Structures are given as structure tokens and as C-alpha cells.
Amino acid sequence: MNQSDQQAAFDQFEMTGQQAAIDQHAKTDQQASCDQHAKTDRSEPADFADDAILKFSCNDAIARLTLARPKQFNALSGALLEAMTAQLQAIANDEAIRVVVIEAEGRAFCAGHDLREMLALETQDQYRELFAACSRMMMTIHRMPQPVIAKVQGIATAAGCQLVAMCDLALASRDAQFAVSGVNLGLFCSTPSVPLSRNLSRKQAFEMLVTGDFISADEAKARGLVNQVVDPSELDAASFALCQRIISKPQVAITAGKQLFYRQLDMGIEAAYQLAGQTMACNMMDAQTREGVGAFVEKRKPRWAQDTSAQAEESSSRIG
């Protein structure tokens, strides 16, 4: 994305004066859409209204959430944050969904918070609630049992970069760019600094935060913000391939593994080893695991049984 597009992202809402009406209508429509999806066959693609701000579909155990405010560079309005949280919570409770992909329409992945909406707020309590709503959405990604993949095209700035950092995995188009650019407007990206400092080294994260500079997709990969960088034409295929590699593994191992991975990061090394050992002991008692280990010893392919939610819940409760 060129410099003019970057500037356009900063001025994201000069393009339209109808944001409030769009958000209110889309919020109502999104709720109806979510209700409809809960009743329909999840193996079939979902149909969406043209003005939906968040689109959901699920095929082959892969759920896709598509940010659909391309004219606003997919900025995170209050309505979009609410819709994302509700849909992510529903996905977390759906045992048929094994992996989640967050993607976006248009030239940008996400340009951060809705600046026009932010300027309309008047009190500190209103701002506190806005950022709390964003944090709730981000923590839903963190806590849900399924791995969440950010599929990034175009720019990801401020809270958009935060969203990438908060996802468990990230793929980026080679022309994608990343920044935590609030400092350019006089607003330090405090909430984005939380996941950014947990993905990058401290000095690399702090440099981005105090300069607001963009980094390329290749540099984001070198710094640890994204896992893979591919040509734009290959982004869909790379995303699908990564999903398939995850889905091919037993669900109980992925669920317990994600929970353990993040819990141990906040512990001292001795406590982390204790929790990890407990997790592995529970994991080894699972029938799926014993089949996988047995197949390796016997030099054959494993014959995986169908995962059940009860297995995953039992494993999680043992290490909880």
C-alpha cells in the first residue's frame, strides 16, 4: 500500500458522513444474521446482507469472520466490536468448529478504532468503556479453545495491528504493512502495546510504539508478528493449508495445548514445568493420543476417532 493509502487510512472517516446510520443498521442486521446462522446447516456457506459489518461463514470445520467496512478501512466501531465478541463467543462454544480465520474486505485489514466515533465521545467513562469493549473482544480470542488465524491484506494499524498480534497465528500478503500509529495523532497505543510486547522483543515493540512507523510484511515476520508472508495471489491457499494442518491433529490436543501455552507464559519456570507435566500426563490418557503414539511405534498411520466436546472438556478440567 502506497503513502497516499496510508494517509487515507489515518483520515479513514472523511470518506463518509453516514457512519452512525450504517453502524446502527448493521448492528441490528448482524444480530439477525447471527441468529439465522445458529439455525442453519453450518456446512453450507452463509448468505449475508450487503450492509453487514461482520460476515460469518463455516465450511469444513473452518469458521471465517470477515470485517466488512471496506470504505472505513474496516475500522473497529463499537458495533463491530460487539458483533465480533458475540460471534467469537458463539464459535468458542461450537464443537464442530476447529479453527477460526479473521479476514477483511477491501484494501486494508483494519485501520484501528473508529476515530470519528471516538471524537463523538465526551467523558472519560465513555472512553474507558470503548477500550474495555475492545479488550473484551481481544481476550475472547485469547480464551477460546480454537486457534485463531489473522489473514492480513493491506494495512493493519493501531488496534488493527493489535488484532493481528492477539491472534494465535498470522498470515500476511507480501504487500501488507503494520504500524501502531496512534502516537502520530498524539495518542499512545497503550492497549495495542499489550499483545505487541508479547509478540516482539521489547525494543522492537517500543520502537514501533514511539515512532508510529510502518513495517513491511517481511519485517513483521522477522520480528515475530506474523508466521508466514506470501504473494497476494497465494494468501487464500496458504490460509486454507494452515487450517488443514491444524484440523488434521486431534482436537483434544489442540484445545489443551492452547490453554497450556498461554497459561504457562504468565508463570515462573518451575510452576510452568509443573503445569506442562500435568497437561502432558492428562493428554497421554486420552484415547486419541494413545492411538497416535501407538501408530508411530507400530510404523503405521493413526486411525483417529471423531473428537468429542466431552473429551476436550474433560482434558481442560484436569489441568484447570
Question: What's the arrangement of secondary structure elements?
Answer:
Blueprint (H helix, E strand, L loop, with lengths): L2 H8 L8 H21 L14 E6 L2 E6 L10 H15 L6 E6 L10 H6 L3 H20 L4 E5 L2 E3 L1 H8 L2 E5 L3 E3 L10 H7 L5 H10 L3 E2 H7 L4 E3 L4 H13 L3 H15 L3 H16 L2 H11 L11 H11 L1
Helix pairs in contact: 2-3, 3-5, 5-6, 6-7, 11-12, 11-14
Please explain how this structure is put together.
- The chain has 320 residues and is of the alpha/beta class.
- The protein has helices spanning 3-10, 19-39, 78-92, 115-120, 124-143, 159-166, 190-196, 202-211, 217-223, 235-247, 251-265, 269-284, 287-297, 309-319, and strands spanning 54-59, 62-67, 99-104, 148-152, 155-157, 169-173, 177-179, 215-216, 228-230.
- A hairpin with a 2-residue loop joins strand 1 (54-59) and strand 2 (62-67).
- Residues 12-50 and 308-319 have low confidence and may be disordered.
Give a short overview.
The protein has 14 helices and nine strands. It is of the alpha/beta class and 320 residues long.
Key terms:
14 helices; 320 residues; 9 strands; six-stranded mixed beta sheet; alpha/beta; globular
- The whole-angstrom Rg is 20 Å
- In terms of DSSP E residues, the strand content is 5-15%
Low-confidence stretches: 12-50, 308-319
* Largest beta-sheet details: 6 strands, mixed
